[in-house]
Amino acid sequence: MITRAPAPEGHPFDEVLSGWLFREAETRAVEADSFQNPGMLEVERAAEIWSTPEGTAGKSCETCHGDVSESMKGVGAHYPKWDKDANRPINIELQIDKCRTEQMGAEPYKFDAKDQKAMTALIKNQSLGEPMSVDLSQGDMQSWWDRGKDTYYTRTGQLNLSCSNCHEDSMGNMIRADHLSQGQVNGFPTYRLKQSALVSLHNRFRGCIRDTRAEFPKAFSDELMALEVYVTWRGTGLSVETPAVRQ
Do 90 and 83 contact (CB within 8 A), yes or no? Predict the structure, then answer.
């Protein structure tokens, strides 16, 4: 597992660090052991969903993609990607919904539905250990990166805080009995022990924004998709840990 990597050009740090390095040894041990990692129960459940037909087309994910461990190997390490049809970046959750509606004749998942988080974790888990990278040469990805960067450094809410105030200025400091990390996203969906559940990336984004006492945007909105592009780029070179385990 790659928990340290040289930062990409233009990054504020010289080295990118996984949230793994900011956790206690006990939490690391739970994540590293696939039999103890509680997030793996959802991954295993999603493997059943993968082969279960849904929708009017009578298809499952397996119908088109075959064995998930083969067809999805390495895929999750390179999202978000540019989607020509939508003319915007999409993440794995939106790609799953696109397949459901266009190929299976099924309804898209509601945001943060249990099955949506489980399926996203299943696909990301097939890239376990592979370094993350985002292709900014696709479509108009660079402008979305720019927008995401602006969002990252913009103070919001009654507390007048930005993402950078915590994950750059205060990195390593204690907050609510935990250490502030660089805010990397290579472990999402992440199993949060205090919630006893998988937590999606956009749920975490919105939670942080809520904590600044600002009105948070809708999941998968342009603002949050741009932020996902930028923050994923910030972790370039770190390996996928999904499902990571955090307090």
Answer: yes
Catalytic residues: 208
Q: Could you tell me the pTM of the whole model?
A: 0.95
Is 179 annotated as a binding-site member? no
3-state SS assignment for residue 54: strand
Structure tokens at 87: 């003319």
Bridge pairing between strands 190-192 and 245-246: parallel
User: Which residue type, as a one-letter code, is found at position 151?
Assistant: T
The CATH number of whichever domain residue 77 belongs to comes to: 1.10.760.10
Range of the domain at 152: 4-246
The answer to whether the CB of 186 falls within 8 A of the CB of 228 is no
- Could you tell me which residues come within 8 angstroms of residue 123 by beta carbon, excluding any fewer than 6 positions away? 68, 72, 75, 76, 92, 96
Task: Find out whether 202 is annotated in a ligand binding site.
Answer: no
Give the model confidence (pLDDT) of 30-78 as tens digits: 999 999 999 999 999 999 999 999 999 999 999 999 999 999 999 999 9
For the chain, what is the domain count? 1
In this structure, are residues 105 and 56 in contact, taking their beta carbons and an 8 Å threshold? yes
